[in-house]
Design goal:
Blueprint: H1 8-18, E1 22-24, E2 36-38, H2 40-59, E3 72-74, H3 84-89, H4 91-94, E4 96-101, E5 108-110, E6 114-123, E7 126-135, H5 140-154, E8 159-162, E9 168-169, E10 180-181, E11 195-198, E12 202-204, E13 214-216, H6 222-227, H7 229-235, E14 242-251, E15 266-276, H8 281-298, E16 306-310, E17 322-328, E18 338-347, H9 349-358, E19 364-366, E20 371-373, E21 376-383, H10 384-395, E22 396-398, E23 406-408, E24 419-423, H11 430-441, E25 447-449, H12 455-465, E26 469-473, H13 475-480, E27 482-487, E28 493-497, H14 501-509
Parallel strand pairs: 3-14, 7-10, 24-25, 24-26
Antiparallel strand pairs: 1-2, 4-5, 4-11, 6-7, 6-8, 6-9, 12-13, 14-15, 15-21, 16-17, 17-18, 18-21, 19-20, 22-23, 26-27, 27-28
Helix pairs in contact: 2-10
Length: about 500
Amino acid sequence: MSKPETSLMDRLTALCKRRGFIFQASEIYGGLNGFWDFGPLGVQLKNNLRDAWWHDMVDCPPLGPDGKPLSIVGIDTSIIQHPKTWIASGHVAGFADLMVDCRESKKRYRADHIKVYTVGYSTPKGVGAWSLGVLEGDDAELQVLKRAKKLVQKQGGGDVRIDSSKPDTLTDIWERHEDIYGPDAENPGTLTEPRAFNLMFHSYSGVFQNEDSKVYLRPETAQGIFLQYKNVLDSTRVKPPFGIAQVGKSFRNEVTPRNFIFRSREFEQMEMEFFCAPEDGMMWYEFWVGERLRWWEAQGVSKDNLFRHVIADADLSHYSKGTSDIEYRYPFTAPGFGELEGVAYRTDYDLKQHQEHSKTNLEYIDQENNRRYVPHVVEPASGLTRGVLVLLCEAYQYDESRASPEWLKLKPSLAPIKVGIFPLMNKDGMPEVAEKLYMDLRRTYTCQYDAKQSIGKRYARMDEAGTPFCITIDGDTLTNQTVTIRNRDTAQQEKVALDKVRAYLAERLSA
């Protein structure tokens, strides 16, 4: 095995486009920054992950601390809600990031995405240090050194070194802004002062486009759940502790969308709001942190690549009594981690805000204990789009000894295509047997029939798609009713009786 020269993210992005996982949105018009389209394989992978989450949250919820199944129901709320929703939730007033503009490059950045490195230099003109800003995640130190070497060349050559073991954040050292080089600037002092920028997209509902008809695309799916909490409570037999789950699109006008689909302006979330008695909030918070870590491991994510980041008390949102980010070691954050899912103990803040602004009583009447209370909420909120990226990063393999050096080791139950079915040759009755097997298996599994090019090239295509098993109809099939099944992970082949293929696949694809 040899190591490719290009970065993992460059290779993964290229593979995703080549095999139809993910495309740049509106690509024929030059693309639209922060928006992505899922191709045939990508949408299947995304749907498989979504369905796995829904099954394990709603159809077959986990067991609670008492060993009994939890009560969780599903919902699907509108992308556009009443504008007062976002006033009550605090998004209109406070859902903002600090942004800066570069007067030289005319680019805009989130202030917290710019890391500033101190780089010492020695040239014929003297010694000193530069403060070089770079966007987080893009091989930051390598980019800083490249820029420093260019600056050194302008001064006749010399040596450079990164003096700071840990970069500074732009906002922490803003008093030195006149000496700081922006990420794409050739001169220092070109960044504007950080200012707040609201992240919500807005539109208008109805005929007239004015402030009275202004609406917002939701920045999260959670608020729709809170608005329907009472209807769910009144129309079903659930009672605290219980959850309401939802999968859907959210929209945030990110200042600097980046790192492929990691940070985009349109994305999908898998969120669940778990309503419980106030005194049980911390217990359920710890329960859901552990449960969500275990769930991602069950999807094939290595435990070593997952990390629980407990948010410090000083950094918690004002309504939170505890928040943990489940983080993943992405290629662009390694050796560090980046957020995959957040588990937040939101207390009763959201329901009380909506109770106050809507003038609707959202208390739960606990008849067994003769009391009333506004439930507290624990929220496991995961990015479905980001989850797809995690699966792709985790699954990507490179091995020059294989027919396709690049291949995806996806968990079989999540793979977009479960089985490839090939006739070894397009003659002697092999296509007819292969097509019959395909027509049978397609009722149960996502299969692909492929009779084009050499068998090696067909294996390579399936490897790149992450297909766990390939079945070849060959001469032995015609003489003794056996097929050849190739295992993606080991590239090993074994003979299986044609009438045993279903049982073979059922055992291995259910894991």
